[in-house]
Amino acid sequence: xxxxxxxxxxxxxxxxxxxxxxxxxxxxxxxxxxxxxxxxxxxxxxxxxxxxxxxxxxxxxxxxxxxxxxxxxxxxxxxxxxxxxxxxxxxxxxxxxxxxxxxxxxxxxxxxxxxxxxxxxxxxxxxxxxxxxxxxxxxxxxxxxxxxxxxxxxxxxxxxxxxxxxxxxxxxxxxxxxxxxxxxxxxx
Length: 188
What we know:
Helix content is 5%, strand content 38%. It has 2 helices and 13 strands, in the order ββββαβββββββββα. The protein has helices at 32-37, 166-169, and strands at residues 2-5, 12-15, 19-21, 24-26, 46-52, 58-64, 72-78, 80-87, 98-104, 110-113, 117-123, 128-134, 143-145. The strands form 3 sheets. The chain has a 6-stranded antiparallel β-sheet with strand order 1-2-10-7-12-5, with no helix packed on it. The two termini are 24 Å apart. Keywords: Isomerase.
């Protein structure tokens, strides 16, 4: 695996190293020791997938509120998405900034973000399947989010969103979040 800086402290784009021949390829998608060596949380307490049938579907920007914010490793298993992470850690040099990249099943590129980030994606193709490895256990009452179109964040989504949940349409702006939902950035 090759780890690349995204400009957001702690958030990494991970490219797979594919070993292949005429039959196809093999690639490692996760290694505890490799993550530890790069200062990333290697714990996986749950794995989840999501399916989006329509091109243009937008999901996000979601996070779990403090004290159970999540470390996430995201990859696209089918189709192509535009994946976005937003730094929500007050005091972070990259607070309020976002990073987005295409993730597709063919390339296998992944995006990792530590606790304190919101995550969202937009389906760029039909029939998208997205996989998540998450460091913390899901706590339903801590489900939170920030608006996908928050002008204070300014994510440049590649398509006009065509399918959003009512919940995602009504999430608060970053400026209106309860500070108790967030974890303060602490310089390592």
